[in-house]
Amino acid sequence: MKEFTIIDSFFTKQNCQRKDVILPIGDDCAITQVPAGQQLAITTDTLVSGVHFPQDSSPEAIAHKSLAVSLSDLAAMGAEPAWINLSLSMPTGDPDWLARFSATLLAQCEYYSVQLIGGDTVQGPLVITITAHGFVPEKQAITRKGGKPGDLLYVTGCVGDAGLGLAIALDKHQAAAGNASYLRKRLDFPTPRVLAGNNLRRIASACIDISDGLLVDLQHILQGSGVGALLQLEHLPLSAELLAEVGQQQAIDLALTSGDDYELLFSVPQEQVTNLERSMLQCNVPVTCIGQLTGQTGKIQLQWNKQAYQLQRRGYQHFALEESVE
Amino acid sequence: MKEFTIIDSFFTKQNCQRKDVILPIGDDCAITQVPAGQQLAITTDTLVSGVHFPQDSSPEAIAHKSLAVSLSDLAAMGAEPAWINLSLSMPTGDPDWLARFSATLLAQCEYYSVQLIGGDTVQGPLVITITAHGFVPEKQAITRKGGKPGDLLYVTGCVGDAGLGLAIALDKHQAAAGNASYLRKRLDFPTPRVLAGNNLRRIASACIDISDGLLVDLQHILQGSGVGALLQLEHLPLSAELLAEVGQQQAIDLALTSGDDYELLFSVPQEQVTNLERSMLQCNVPVTCIGQLTGQTGKIQLQWNKQAYQLQRRGYQHFALEESVE
Fold first, then answer.
1. A33 and B40: CB-CB below 8 Å?
2. What ipTM is given for this predicted complex?
3. pLDDT(A3) > 70
4. pLDDT, tens only, A256-307
5. A152-320, superfamily in CATH?
6. Cβ-based neighbour number of residue A149 at 10 Å
7. Rounded to whole angstroms, how far apart are CA atoms A128 and A90?
8. What is the DSSP string of B158-189?
9. Which residues of A touch B74 (CB under 8 A)?
10. Which among B236, B240, B252, B223 is positioned nearest to B310, based on CA atoms?
């Protein structure tokens, strides 16, 4: 028990001290203040060793990813990150591991102006849960429900990288050193698209982050908005590293079916396209139009240069960390 | 993965639908609204099977306790519960276990007018994390810092029961059937003192919930407030069941050193005592004055009928669930 009280000391030295945190870590609860005119976006994500990250992941990677997946959810709502609560269950209070984990977590918190306001450290299997809180102006949250037929469908960054990164982590793909480093980094150190998400308020009609795979996550928008989608796969943004390793066809399959990319997938009414382009240029986030929403509720049409495209359902898309767990 | 999507369906049928939840479960984040004039109290607690509850605990007990420990933290700040996020990691998606766990959790949520607004269900060892959110009027949160020498020290309900309940759960104490049932219930189904906590605003000068044991938790108030305490142990509220099982001396030791009672321990300025008594009578919560804060920072004096009392440091106080874990 004492050991786990000591653990807490690793999380007390924070550079980010927000004015809206009235009472920080150290009492039964934190006390916070939501600014007038703002609503509160709240999300919880749990990462289990061997399920959501490889068991040999570095403490830096685990800390980075734990925070990134929660901030990515805030980004997908257009919310600005504010506070997090951390639950850390770990078998032993290894001080080296804790120093590395907490240094990365708090550095990332500082980068995003996020304050750690509470949590719990307990003895148990390695499981990390973060509940993240963010602000979004009233009625400006971007849900999955606002997409309309005709809206253009966009994605930030590149897709498919984390899927091949996982295959590399599981020794199921041998990659050239430079590519392996890039792809594994995309798996272990995803970038939550916080700035992009904030700038999509009043521009995007619907938004989600790609955690389970582009097609699966697109279906959530289709169900939420009661629409269908046409994807023009020749426009899919694929990294040079991914293409160099597996070629175009497998790259497309990975981009469509593998998860963990944490890019934003969003729809934009045509009259907002100029605003979108200006806004994304301003925040320096690459976005690509990959298709359009349609009136065929729940249906996804895949096209390659206007011809129907058959998903191969082979290649790497069946890799999943879950398979490596008993 | 699909299995764990199905799990979510166990948590969707909620009777509690709050107006301050703008967007409930089902998107990347929940969107909520904190009422004007209110601050937000936030707390996270994690319970690991075999560490925080016996491995043979019923799903009802696990659900009840998971929520109770978080609501108890809100109560200790004087906050009114509003929303929770649930992270549930479990080895298999056993539908019977889930039905029982979710039924208890949601029934308790309804009882306290709490809405489940999000969370994560993942495959992994049995670990439950709840982040609870509550409201407290601006500047009325009860912290650990406001105690002053001369303030009277109170506790709600009885103390020590859960400690003996744990000894029973671990087969280290054989109790008469009726006593065993009561004591085990105090361990497995603690009552968070929500109503009492809310009514202590502007009456109590400092407050904490007893989770780690009366002396340990009292030290947090002493450190926070820069005071000491004198305990008059003849006033300690001990249940008839506890006294019947272990006698007065061991009962006192348990009351002072064993945790998990989730009663509130709080200090009250003498001029507020009348208000306190009226208020606690109104909300029907028994409270007992067990001593007084002193000017001797960090020092706890134990007295029995004005004579110095020597804590036995034997008996049941060394029992801890942690010992039963590898």
1. yes
2. 0.93
3. no
4. 999 999 999 999 999 999 999 999 999 999 999 999 999 999 999 999 999 9
5. PurM-like C-terminal domain (3.90.650.10)
6. 16
7. 9
8. -SSHHHHHHHHHTTS----HHHHHHHHHHHHS
9. 28-29
10. B252
Whether residue B40 contacts residue A23, with contact meaning beta carbons closer than 8 Å, is answered with no
What is the pLDDT at residue B54? 87
Helix (H), strand (E) counts: chain A: 9, 13
pLDDT at B2 over 80: no
Whether residue B200 has pLDDT greater than 80: yes
Q: Does residue B143 sit at the A interface (CB-CB below 8 Å)? A: yes
Residue A320, pLDDT > 90, answer no
**For residues B161 and B309, what is the distance between their CA atoms, to the nearest angstrom?**
21
| CA pair distance B220, A234, nearest whole angstrom | 62
Tokens (6 digits) for B155: 């506790």
Q: Is the CATH number of domain A2-137 3.30.1330.10?
A: yes
> B152-317: which CATH topology?
Phosphoribosyl-aminoimidazole Synthetase; Chain A, domain 2 (3.90.650)
- By C-alpha distance, which of B246, B143, B241 is closest to B185? B241
Cβ contact B158:B260 at 8 Å: no
Place of tokens 């109770």: B68
Alpha-carbon distance A304 to A181, whole Å? 30
Sequence spans of domains, chain A: 2-137, 152-320
Hey, CA dihedral for A201, A207, A208, A214, is it positive or negative?
negative
State how far the alpha carbon of B282 is from the alpha carbons of B27, B196, B199, B275, in Å: 41, 10, 9, 11
Residue B13 — very low, low, confident or very high, per pLDDT cuts 50/70/90?
A: confident
Residue B308, pLDDT above cutoff 60: yes
- Cα three-residue angle B206-B207-B213, rounded to 5 degrees: 130
Q: Is B69 on the interface with A (CB under 8 A)?
A: no
Mutate one of A44, A65, A74, A263 to test the B interface: name it (highest B CB count within 10 A). A44
Read off the pLDDT of each residue in B184-195 and give the average, rounded to a whole number.
96
- State the nearest Cα–Cα gap between B234 and chain A, in angstroms: 28
